[in-house]
Amino acid sequence: MPDEFCAAHSMAAGRGCKVFEAEEELLGTSHAEIGAYLLGLWGLPNLAVEAIAHHHRPTRVPHSGFDCAAAVYVANLLAGELGACGAGFQGG
Q: pLDDT (tens digit, 9 = 90+) per residue, 62-84?
């Protein structure tokens, strides 16, 4: 879906929002949920699938303490701050 990918990035840049927010608006879902779905099909453990599915919105799932979901969320934030995914990374 390269056209939708480009549209989400353009929307995010134009509005100053996160790419996953633009994906949700355009597609009704984001790369987080799509990726988690595929990982679930491939048999990854549910803890990992859940953490990936909610790495932008960890409060969607109940958890206590610093668990897998919290770790992936923090890693995503740090990657964005450090520019680990290249210029223009917006929490995608």
A: 877 888 888 888 888 888 777 65
Q: Residue for token digits 């206590």?
A: 64
Q: How would you label 14-28 residue by residue, b for 16+ Cβ within 10 Å and e otherwise? A: eeebbbbbbbbeebe
Say if CB 86 and CB 92 are below 8 A apart.
no
Rounded-to-5 percentages of helix, strand, coil across the chain: 65, 0, 35
Helical H runs in 16-90?
19-27, 31-41, 46-53, 68-82
Q: Is the pTM of this model over 0.85?
A: no
